[in-house]
Structure formats: structure tokens, C-alpha cells
Amino acid sequence: MPQVDAITLALEKNLMTGNYSYWTTTTLLSLLYLASATMYIARRDWVRRALADLGYPGYLVPMLTAVKILAVAAILSRVSVALSDLAYAGMLFHLLLSASAHVGVRKPGGALPAAVGLVLLVVSFATQNAARDIPSPYAPAGNVVAAHGNIGIPATQDQ
Known about the structure:
The protein is mostly helical. It has helices at about 1-40, 45-55, 60-75, 80-105, 110-130. Helix 1 crosses helix 5 and helix 3 (about 60-75) packs across helix 4 (about 80-105). The longest helix is centred in the first third of the chain and has 41 residues, at about 1-40.
């Protein structure tokens, strides 16, 4: 059955591409967030002034630092799919608010890291089911290889 072999090969290639896309974008997104948290720790006074220039209080710095580190940990460890999806949602709101805050004070160049982060976040979230054993119910299913290695069985179909 050459047609079945061709379909299986195409699905495996699609899965591999999704797997690489997921891990590349997730790694870059995690590095962006960890670099930001590190800067929040190392240059606390500068970050407080920068947040004040955007109209935010300085007491947000320790909370944002902790939340950024915890969001990366939740996504990478995937202890819970729901917690991972919540971390993605938190990052989405953070990046959208960050970009809008910079644009709102007429500093659109400051929104560039948030724009890059949004692109990485969308690709990471959209491809997570290709790379993770337990699929997220909110990410696009596509042609996911189930945890048992069955090619071509969508994640939403009963097994």
C-alpha cells in the first residue's frame, strides 16, 4: 500500500516540523522571559523608573519577576496542561499590555520585544500538540501523533 506509506511519511514529516517549531519558539520565548526577569533583578532601579515612565507603579517589579520565571517553569515542565495553558494566557496578556503601554506613551520602539514575544508565543502555543504527549484542548489539533505513537489519529478522536 504505497499510498498509506506516503501518507504516513507526510504525517511524520509534518509532526517533525511541528516538533522543531515548538521547541525552537518555546526555547526563544523562555529565554526572552528569563532574560527579562534577570534584568528585573540586576537593574531593579532602572526597571522601576522605566515602569514609572509607562505609568505603572514600581511595586510591580518583584511580582513581574516571579510571574515571568513561574510562567516559563509551567510551560517547560508541563506539570499540568491547564497550568501550562494558563501560563500561555498570562504571557499573552502581558505581551499585549506591554506593547500597548509603549505605544500609548509614544515609544513604539519599546514594543518590539513584545511583538517578537507575541510571534514566538503564538507559534509555540499553536505547535505544542505536535511536541507534547498530552495535548492541550485549546491548541489546534492538526495531525497529532497520539501518546502511543499511532500516526494519523487526531488528538480529539477516541482511541
